[in-house]
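Exercise (ungraded).
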Amino acid sequence: MSTHDTYTIPAGPDDYLVPMAGDARFTWEYDGGRARLLALYQKGKDKQWDAQSRIDWTLDLQHDNPLGIPEHFNELMGSRTWDRVSADPALKTELYRHQAGWQISQFLHGEQGAMICSARIVESVPGLDAKFYAATQTMDEARHVETYAKLLQDKIKLAYPISSPLQQLLDETLRDSRWDMPYLGMQVLIEGLALAAFGLLRDMTTDPLVRAVTAYVMQDEARHVAFGRLSLKDAYAQLSTKEREEREEFVVEACYLMRDRFLKREIWERLDYDVEDCVDAIEHSASGVMFRNLLFTRIVPCIKDIGLWGEKVQEAYADMGVLDYAGTNLDGLMAADEATAEQIDAEKRLNDARLAEVDQAIAVGAAG
Ligand SMILES: [Fe+2]
Ligand SMILES: [Fe+2]
């Protein structure tokens, strides 16, 4: 089935074109490289996996709550719309299905953006060590597109077009001729925000398929954010004040844009809800504010770490209420992301072994 048949609002024509600027860059130095980048490249190679075999695609999602998110986490909680919709099981199912379709669609479009940006980084970044790493990331992102496309097309069957703030940020990132901009836009900002959104979903969902998909993707994404940090930290130490300020302005503008992405106006308009009532719940309810702030847990410490920590950035983060995340331990979070994915693998192995034992017992019984 064409994905276009599942878009609940038209996604526009295929072949969306973004003109790119800047140089493809070769190097004739094949020796050496930065040890930490090469170690990350080795890890990228060692941790490749196959979405077809690692994930149990025989699992189905619940029709009335595909992402398995407990009711008390619903972002509309406390609004007049929620009171009306949650009283009617058919309306409530419709809401949950649209929220799931929107969320996984945005993850999917973002992953395609990441695949294109990481391929762009292979072309433009100086140094073979960074080109090597970006090449493994391009493969990781292809796998993420494959995984979310399968989840959306085979299981959820309801898609949304890319949200305009995400499209705008991707466009700006790709149109820029400076080699570091795809890193800053994609590796640090879009990936950092996606990683936090994945983390919230992984930790809230009660559904085993959604949890496994998210945890496996996160295991790779943690390396991608580390790649952005390592590369930019070196490069940004050499910037002039003017160059640094330009990047800081981009960060501030992009962070406000990314925050607005999660107001999800497209869903409320599509369902003919009272849009302002829904947006108000997300912007002002205690859980809405907490949720949107949590999206910045991974971005803020990374921006500080790469040295884009001027006054304007700090003021913007204080205004958004996320400045305190500057102290988050990113390496600790990354280690925890890996441990969670490995734990899910271990649970699956145990489950597969149990099923094999049952099969064997049935076969013995049938033979007897
Ligand atoms: Fe990804
Ligand atoms: Fe990524």
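Further reading is listed at the end of the chapter. For now, observe: The CA atoms of residues 64 and 93 lie 5 Å apart. Residues 114, 141, 191, 221, 224 surround fe (ii) ion (ligand 2) (CB under 6 Å).
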